[in-house]
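Subject: Sanity check before I submit

Could someone independently write out the structure tokens for this chain? I want to compare against mine line by line before I put it in a report. The sequence has 592 residues.
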Amino acid sequence: MKITADELRKKWMDFFTKRGHTPISSASLIPENDPTVLFTTAGMHPLVPYLLGQPHPAGKRLCDAQKCVRTGDIDEVGDASHCTFFEMLGNWSLGDFFKAEMVPWSYEFLTKELGLSPDRLAVTVFEGDADCPRDNETAALWEKCGIKKENIFFLGKKHNWWGPAGQTGPCGPDTEMFYDTGKPKCCPECSPACDCGKYVEVWNDVFMQFNKTADGKFEPLKQKNVDTGMGLERALMNMQGLSSVYDTDVFKPIVDKIKELAEVKDDSVETVKAVRVVADHIRTSTFIIGDERGVTPSNVDQGYILRRLLRRAIRFGTTIGLKAGDYSAVAAVVVDKYKDVYPELLAARDKIIFEINEEQARFSRTLENGIKEFEKLCKFLQTDVIPGKSAFRLYDTYGFPLEMTIEMAKERGFTVDVDGFNARFEEHKNLSHAGAEQRFKGGLADTGELTARLHTATHLMHRALKEVLNDENVNQRGSNITPERLRFDFSFGRAMTPEEIKAVEDKVNAAIKADVPVTCEEMTVDEAKAAGAVGLFASKYGEKVKVYTMGEFSKEICGGPHAAHTGELGHFKILKEQSSSAGVRRIKAVLE
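---
Independent answer below. Compare away.
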């Protein structure tokens, strides 16, 4: 069945709405108050507190299309299926239905709604181990639906187990659904666990039924959850009968614009990869800058990843003839493609174009400096081999691709220690992966007392900043809380004075001394606005949110853990106030 992205999103929402699910808006790409990751990496990520038992204002059955960014496989971008930005279609049961409902629904959606042949579906289920039993229940449900027994594969924890997110917490078996492409089996044991390309994953149902304890035991969960995820881009590729996500309708206008601007005439492997890298990275950058909590290029955290994406796009774009201004023109196509689904992009259109043009200009200056650095290196080189660490410094600091360094070296009669470069590159990649996947302890799953107090203090500080700086445009641009400290990014164009910092501290401590109760109410977004609550208002009309009130001191939309009274917080102290990126300041503070 040929189906567009808009049609697939609508089918998903309609299907689950008819089955009692409430559609919810995509959360921000920048996780709120979660220091464990840089970006929202999956549909379940913003819902962790609710999967742990906190009641969700929209109920026990939810569905959505969630914006996600993953950069762990950035070097794979350019092949047929890897993307750094993607949309995850998801539905959840928060302690409501379980396997008996979800498996038949999954089968029905794939075969009836999407028209996939049951004969070309294969599924995997958990084979069991010493910790937890074999998931015969799910296998029996698939067979009852109509999946042939020979197309049901039992696999171990590596393939069919989710979680916990940290060392302890909710986890459980999952069942994955695959589409058989029709390619021949690579070997007699060929299964969806192979990377031969015969089977392409289209959906994953996670059954959170166990809690892993600190001593490694797996105990049954009181609240059993269902957490599913279907990657929209890869699903479209299968639905549209295509061999690459870059040929689907979400990417085609972006790819066509790149080819038009670069006047691409060939379809060599190098050119195809360059076009795809530019398409993916500019799409991702557009969503990061245009997000409700959008960031700008910088040398730290999300801003660093954004800078890396843009500069990588420019490096590949240069090889096919893209020029200054072309990258923002591609971003404009991304905005037009997604403006109806994600209106925040249209609202931020001018900002997106400005930031991409600015970064392109900055990168050009950096490359000029890099060429000077290269000339200096050659002048003082004692041998005819450029060391790998020097080639990597040119890559990491000045954005020189290895190929560019090799080419410039060859012109001067030098060679490059490629093995030394690759060793440095791998080391850097491993550090980047570790940083992207697991950054600090804490996170949305941490509902501990210290984290809850710092979370509460963040609300009070947000209000105090607006009052002291006399600017209602002072808004949260990012929050990062661990049990030890809070870090808060906010929109403001200059450094705060020592007097302003002290005034903010005094206001927060006055609210703490007042020892007012922290109350929570569920209301619609319009009701929250009318009540004077601050926060992101990206939710759909009629969608319910939680509003936390602290006397006359603060009223804010939020989903995190909080103290019961402000008096529990102790003494608030700001340790540092500094620049985070252009127009954004950062505060680090503690409770003593």
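---
OP: Matches mine. For the report I'm noting this point. The chain is about 40% helix and 20% strand.
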